[in-house]
Design brief:
Organism: Stackebrandtia albiflava
Transmembrane segments: 20-41, 53-72, 84-102, 108-126, 147-165, 171-189, 219-243, 255-273, 285-318, 372-391
Distance between the termini: 68 Å
CATH topology of the largest domain: Growth Hormone, Chain: A
CATH superfamily of the largest domain: MFS general substrate transporter like domains
Number of domains: 2
Structural class: mainly alpha
Subcellular location: Cell membrane
GO cellular component, one term: plasma membrane
Shape: globular
Number of strands: 2
Membrane topology: Multi-pass membrane protein
Length: 444
Amino acid sequence: MTAVRNWFRLTVGGLPRAFWHLWVVTLINRLGSFVLIYLTIYLSVVRDLEPGTIGLLLSAQGAGAIAGTQFAGVLTDRWSRRKTLMLSNFAASVVLLALAFAEQVWAMGVMLVLLGAALNMARPAFSAMITDIIRPADRVRAFTLNYWAINLGFAGAALLAGLVAGLDFHLIFFVNAAALAATGLLVLLKVPETRPVVVAADPAAAPVRVGRVLVRDRVFLSFIGLTFLPAFLMISLETLLPLQVTGSGLTEQQYSYIIATNGVIIVAGQLFIPRLVEGRRRSRVLALSCLFWAAGVGFVGVADTVAVFMLTVLIWTIGEMLQTPANSATIADLAPPTMRGRYQAAYSLAFQVSGLVAPVLGGLGMQYLGRWWWAVAAGVGVVAAIGNLVAEPARERRLAAVYAAEARAAKETQAAQDDSATAPEPVAPADRRRDDTGELAAVR
């Protein structure tokens, strides 16, 4: 029992209250995310759309996601983290209600563009807020806990959405909209603004161009490129694994059991990851995660039973569990404090672009290469692992410099607080009154 208490304390202890408010925001948001789970089925069953039309509508949502993320990156840095997060949730809530009543394809397309933009506006703001309030040593742990909340919420949403959709498909929109409004209200009431106070720049100094800073940041750009490769594998699995499973003679219901393995493993095991990787270089953790991705994806090509497919899911899920918190913490550390929103937005592009590229290349690969496509995909994971090891020296030097600078800033802040606490109280001037002659005299 003592060991369990110690593990629990080391896993969740020592994090600020603001983080737990954000954690609850994540959990409620994901518990109510019914529409994303059932959107394809809704468009097919309720709206009776063809697969090609559905694909175009989902691509429209992806285009909106790219635009919304980049716009939110600017808002997060220049306006407010907190207000951007509230705007995202409240706007998405309204758009979902409008989407529920959209009947024409063009109207659904417009609503899905707006929905993709509104939902993804939260990403840069949310990640920047966690980075602002969590010290570097605890960031992997914090992002792990947040990722666990995401998967716990999605697991609950999958169960609840099925029950709600069985009553009336339109209810999934109403419940999802209510959850988004509730999270926006929770941010309004409980989450403080975390955006760093920017010291006024010297008017004579040249303005800082964030785009130029990003383009010249080679360590950051290499990290984004290496993030794109496992993201490509992730999207390939999301879009093509159902085809591989059904093409092997298995049913859609058996596929649901197979893919459910992913959520079960993450919910059961994600909280153990921080202790396993504590003190290890993140570049090596990321390289190891890419090898798990490669192995899991590669074995998909030879799987033909439910048990073997579940084994492949187990393997690549371990890669996912290692990668996600390490990635989030690394990008948080690489981003300058005043540019965290835009760095997070640029980081999100790795996943959003892979969402556009992977289905096309993967579909063509499966069409012309068959099962051998998965061997090619495994090679992508191996390349990503090697790339992380090659990038390790420059990345670790950059991170070491960031940690040293943050430690110096913390010491200077503490020293200033100590000086103000020990400074002698100023001597108040003697009280004075006028004497009978009208002259000022000290009151003794």
